[in-house]
Amino acid sequence: MLRDKLKSFDLKYFFIPLFVLILVFLILTYVFVRSRIQEKFQNFANTAITISESYSQMLRHSREAYDTINELLNEKLEVASQAVMLIQGTEDNEVLSELANRFRVDEIYAYDVNGTITHSSNGNYIGWKAYEGHLFMIS
Questions:
Q1: Using H for helix, E for strand and C for coil, what is the string for 45-85?
Q2: Which of 135, 136, 118 is nearest to 127 (CA)?
Q3: 3-state class of 2 per DSSP?
Q4: Which of 10, 30, 83, 116 lies at a CB distance of 3.0 to 4.6 Å from 129, suitable for a disulfide?
């Protein structure tokens, strides 16, 4: 009987510390894993913010470049149209072709008052007539 008491007594002193150690281990593991998850989430959030700021800057620069290109193209078209207006009355396909090459414009068309193409820098669309309400006729 004394031996049984010793066995039960030993097991009791063995299981209680074991249970406490396992409990402490589980709590420490939980705290460590939770802090690592929060750290990784914070790194992810910081990376996402950095990428979004970079993307925003790229969009801003792209918009500025787009506006600059549009301004330059509008100036180029305005200069070419003013040059065509200076030769008004003497235009023919060859003169328009030369102007298109000189001003690096793809195509130049000469219209009459009715909106019909009379001359073209590339010889295309001669005789085409702008329909009623066409943007060209309004402008």
A1: HHHHHHHHHHHHHHHHHHHHHHHHHHHHHHHHHHHHHHHHH
A2: 118
A3: helix
A4: 116
Is residue 80 a contact partner of residue 108, using CB atoms and an 8 Å limit? yes
User: pLDDT by residue for the chain (139 residues), tens digit each?
Assistant: 555 555 556 677 778 889 999 999 999 999 999 999 999 999 999 999 999 999 999 999 999 999 999 999 888 888 877 877 777 766 677 888 888 888 888 888 877 777 788 878 887 878 888 777 777 666 5
Return the bridge partners of 136, or none.
none
Q: Which two tokens stand for residue 108?
A: 């130049």
Residue written as tokens 């010793």?
Answer: 6
Q: Given CA atoms 114, 115, 118, 124 in this order, what sign does their dihedral have? A: negative
Distance from chain centroid for Cα 110 = 38
